[in-house]
Amino acid sequence: MSRHTNRRTSRVRTTAAAAALLLALPLSVAAAAPALAAPAVPVATTAGTATGTASTVHLELPRPTGPYAVGQEILHMVDHDRTDPWVPSAGPRQLMVTMYYPAHAGTGTAAPYMTAAAARMLLDAKIPGNTVPTETVTDTRTWSRTDARPQGGHYPLVVLSPGFTMPRTSLSSLAEELGSRGYVVALVDHTYENTGTTFPDGQTLPCVECGQLKTPEAWKGLDESRAKDASFVIDQLTARPHPIWRYARMIDRDRIGMAGHSAGGAASVPALVTDDRIRAGVDLDGSMDYEVPESGIGGKPYLMIGHPLPGAEDTSWTDSWPRLDGWKRWLTFDGTDHGSFTDYSLFLDALGVPQPPGTTMSGQRATELTRRYVGAFFDLQLKGIDQPLFDGPTAADPEVRFHS
After folding, report:
1. What predicted TM-score, i.e. pTM, was given to this entire model?
2. Mode of pairing for the β-strands spanning 204-205 and 251-261
3. Which segments within 162-206 are labelled E, that is strand?
4. DSSP code at position 70
5. I need a surface site. Which of 19, 189, 279, 281 has the fewest CB within 10 A?
6. DSSP string spanning 219-272?
7. CA–CA dist 328, 218 (Å, integer)
8. Residue 248 CA to chain centroid, in angstroms?
9. Which is nearest to 337 in space by CA: 82, 2, 108, 1?
10. Using 50, 70 and 90 to split pLDDT, how confident is the model at 45?
11. Whole-angstrom distance, CA of residue 197 vs CA of residue 284
């Protein structure tokens, strides 16, 4: 079974090979919802393949295609007006956010992919009996630079939200691409919802919610909570007179969008409904547990991109589609799976790990298409640049199917 084949049996538009390296749900989730996955790649074979190649493979994100170099800065945000929804005893909701921005070439130092503690928790959660060296992940080559000197001017802001159980770094390549194309990007870790989030005090907090979301109402609550996280991040970045980020002057407050993968994409619906500042949204393969209301989303533009399903389409998408009351497109990338829209499809290819059945598109091609179509959407909706890419199918992208 693949992503959200219906609202009763599936919640995360997951792949048929749910045990494959870095794309499997944690065991706690798999145990709670065995219907999420069809027969998977054998775990021993998967882990063994990864272990056998990890020490000799150097992972590298694709080079961004835009005209700008990309700067990076990590922020710690604390919402004193909101208690953490998952661990109330922890006190205020705290988030770690990576900012990407257009920068001057040749400034700053190479940014790390993720902390060692977070990488170890990711590998341990995704690979039963994991023996993959942590450095396989932490040494991934990025193209963004820490302390890079920012470009002048004002740029649209895009908030990015990763999939459930996935750390924010899973969308690093997309974030770098958008930064290179002239966007400020806020890539958010939703604390206690992913394999591990490292905070400035050295703590790496675990995934408390993994395996806990067992009803449609619970998944809808996750979407709503992430929408609140997104709005809080925007609050912090656009606050006057003292925004949390030292380069906040780069942000054009009138041009803000949101995109995400899986649960992160689904969260864009309540975010658009509840926050007037967010003008456009993208859902990358995320079932809409918070469906588009009958009243629509205020005419805001919306892009849905998914992987092909073996049977009927996701009912949350088919039900929501006619309610979208602004510019809209629904695309399927043939040959992809649920993880194809993240960095991890690149990692699977590099490590020689078998892809789920039916996955014929390489990680490199999936990343290229995801970055191009998401970038074109925001260029159209936040910059007003015409995009013939969305006029219909093209010979250059035969894998891209348009729904109507």
Report:
1. 0.89
2. unpaired
3. 184-189, 197-198, 204-205
4. E
5. 279
6. HHHHHHHHHHHHHHHHHHHH-SS--SSTTGGGEEEEEEEEEEETHHHHTHHHHH
7. 28
8. 22
9. 2
10. very low
11. 22
Both tokens assigned to 19:
């045990």
CA torsion, ordered 338, 344, 350, 351, to nearest 10 deg = -90
- Beta bridge partners of residue 302, listed in sequence order: 281, 328
| Residues with Cβ within 8 Å of residue 374, at least 6 apart in sequence | 174, 177, 178, 259, 282, 284, 303, 305
What's the pLDDT at 152?
96
Report pLDDT for 351. Answer: 85
Note the pLDDT of residue 24: 36
> pLDDT-based confidence at 37, cuts 50/70/90?
very low
The pair phi, psi for residue 197, each rounded to 5°, is -125, 120
Q: Which residues contact 95 (CB under 8 A, 6 or more apart)?
A: 76, 77, 79, 188, 189, 190, 191, 229, 232, 233
- Cα distance between residue 306 and residue 130, in whole Å: 30
* CA-to-CA separations, 377 to 165, 276, 305, 311, 352, in angstroms, rounded: 26, 19, 11, 28, 32
- Contact (CB, 8 A) for 348 and 46: no
Backbone angles phi, psi at 303, to 5 degrees: -120, 125
Average pLDDT over residues 13-37: 33
Largest alpha-carbon pair distance within the chain? 56
Task: Tell me the per-residue pLDDT of 147-157, one tens digit each, with 9 for 90 and over.
Answer: 999 999 999 99
- Per residue in 327-373, pLDDT (tens digit) is 999 999 999 999 999 999 999 898 888 888 899 999 999 999 999 99
